[in-house]
Amino acid sequence: MKLLHLLVVGLSVCIVSAVPIKGRREWRYPAGCTRLETCVYYASFLLFDDKIAVTVEANQTDSTYTGVGVTEDANMDSGADLYWGYCEKDGNNVVLNGWLNTTTSRPEKDDVQSLFDDSITCNNGYLKMVFSRYRVSTHPRDLNLTETDCHHIVFPVQGGKVAEDGSGAEALLKPPTISSQPICFSGDLTTETPQDINEPETTILPMTSESPVAVGLCDGRPDGEQHLYPNDCTKYIECTNGAPKIKQCQAYTYFAPTSPGTDKCVDQGSLTPERKAECNLH
């Protein structure tokens, strides 16, 4: 059996059809969120005889993109078949398919576009993207989505920026999360409730002079004590068993050490003017 991995960067599908649905699978982020209310990202796949319909919903702003794709290995060493979309301020809404060479490269648009029944809307910071594609494609870079082609799903829940010079999508803002198990596109695709997308893995910082964190920062400090992460306001450092651990705020939130309450990751509007300046936010 050929194992593939499906890359999701934020899509959503709504299909009205007399053709029976053979299967459905849904995912959400963060864990336990409610669609259209507290989810930062939601994706669903509807399986038909010869096509798959995809829906992705995500918190996005103008000139940022989200999407979905498939890859042949869990580390994306062979690249990914990617589908992405975005809304521009001038009303030019775009849905594209192409290729992502690595988790840090820019998506490359395919010369031949193989998506259909596609649409994308952006309202009040909320993006919804819908498209369909055939399960077996004749395009040389499209990966097939059949009962014998099993895919791991890749969720770039924070998407990426669209270049201001009109050159297309830039690299993803953060590496995507990849599902731990491959998904086969067969009749048993259906699950009763959306599956939770795991939090991006955190990193234990090496205690060396080359670390971006001061050596001994958490020596003797209580678990849960938090500190600023240098040069990135979307991260912070939390002491765990005497060692500094990088933590990532959810999409569109920033670490604010003086914020009241236990959750120090807040939206831009809740930051003090001084913290906005530190984070280069305007």
Protein structure class: mainly beta
Number of strands: 22
Q: Secondary-structure element order, as H and E?
A: EEEEEEEEEEEEEEEEEEEEEEH
Instruction: Output the radius of gyration.
Output: 20 Å
The backbone outline, from C-alpha atoms, is globular
CATH-defined architecture of the largest domain: Sandwich
Strand content: 35-45%
Terminal-residue CA separation: 51 Å
Question: How is the main sheet built?
Answer: 10 strands, mixed
User: Would you state the CATH class of the largest domain?
Assistant: Mainly Beta
Task: Please tell me the overall pLDDT.
Answer: 78
CATH topology description of the largest domain: Immunoglobulin-like
Number of helices: 1
> What helical percentage do the residues reach?
under 10%
Which ranges are low-confidence, i.e. pLDDT below 50, for 5 or more consecutive residues? Answer: 8-19, 200-212
Assembly type of the chains comes to single chain
Number of discrete domains: 2
Architecture overview:
- 2% of the residues lie in helices and 41% in strands.
- The chain is mostly beta strands and 282 residues long.
- It folds into two domains: 2-196, Immunoglobulin-like (Sandwich); 203-278, no CATH class.
- Strand 7 and strand 8 form a beta hairpin.
- The longest helix is centred in the C-terminal third of the chain and has 6 residues, at 273-278.
- The N and C termini lie far apart (51 Å).
